[in-house]
Amino acid sequence: MASDSKALRVWVHEPLTKEVRRALARLARLDDVAVVAVMPDVHLAKAVCVGAVVATETRLFPDAVGGDIGCGMAAVRFDASASSLETRAAAAAVLEMLSERVPCSRRPAGEATLPEALASRALSSRSLERKKNSIGRVQFATLGRGNHFVEFQTDDEGQLWLMLHSGSRGIGQGIREHHGGGDGSLQSLAADSAEGRAYYRDLSWALDYARLSRRRMVELIGEGVRERIGLSVSWESFFDCHHNFVRRESHEGRSLWVHRKGAISAGQGEPGIIPGSMASPSYHVTGRGNPASLCSSSHGAGRVMSRTEARRRVSTRVLLDQMRGVWFDEQIANRLRDEAPEAYKKIGAVMRAQRDLTRIVRRLRPLLAYKGP
Fold it and tell me: Which residue in the list 148, 165, 259, 299 is annotated as catalytic?
């Protein structure tokens, strides 16, 4: 760990770029910011870098959470060995099932619904209520695009696992924008004001939306896998974690608002999920409760190329070569170039840089990847 200032604490495996250093320094200088902990997957994003943990005394920063509120991971084990997916026929059946049961964009109107636990809770404005009942309803239990994915994996013992990455979809973006985020200006809200309390209530709703949406997709996938290739889910193994959220926590004798944007909570013994790229390992971990990092760790490998740069530099042929050994829909390979493994940092280096933040429980290697085009 390196420390650049009293407020800025950094875990990295390579020098930060000038742009990232500038963005982090700007963040650390803001009034009310007590600590910024920088994770090894840090990379540039609008307003606040992904891979930053921001602790404040009294104010909430919507951009320090981001628009995909509650974005995170879910994982579950199957009662089967990974060899169940070794044939092209089995992989094709699973990919077809995923395209039918887990839409990337929205569900048909006849299938769209919100769980009662979400539908019965009102958001803070009429405009957000309209979004909840339109966008939120049709996008519930949908995956999203970009870096959201479903992946079937094998652990080192040959056991088959499922991992899923998704969040609050368009309704999370709507909540951030409604409360003054998204324009890069780093606006903040007094946490004890009416506006701050309204944002936190809406954020809490979006966290539940994201968590319940992931759970529902895992249920649908489990049902589909049982029907198509006869495998069952071991539900006692299911776990889930957010990596875009804010909550009140106690650190170093202070009560702080801890914002995590592309970072997971890593308290002592706390389970977490850290994915790699489409062709690299992922990890199940437990936290070490390191107080210097505000009990946090990275949320994944982190981008090393922007999407624009990846589309310019990575050819379809290169992507296909890097994905060798992983089943996926090769018909959309050209549209997945911005998600190529080459566009991400090396997950092994990220994990080594945070050895004092997490303890590895399980390494998982990808067998089948499903993403939206």
Answer: 299
Local mean pLDDT, 10-residue blocks, the chain (373 residues): 66 93 94 96 94 98 97 98 95 97 92 95 98 97 96 98 98 97 90 98 98 98 97 98 98 96 98 97 98 97 95 96 96 95 96 98 98 85
Burial of 112 (0-12, 13-18, 19+ CB in 10 A): middle
Half-sphere exposure of 159 (CA within 13 A, CB side): 16
Q: Is-contact 70 245, C-beta < 8 A? A: yes
CATH no., domain 2-304+344-370: 3.90.1860.10
How many CA within 13 A on the CB side of residue 218? 26
Domain boundaries, the chain: 2-304+344-370
* β-strand pairing of 254-261 with 244-251: antiparallel
Q: Annotated catalytic, 259?
A: no
Partners of 160 in the beta sheet? Answer: 154
**Closest to 281 measured CA to CA, from 185, 342, 225, 346:** 346
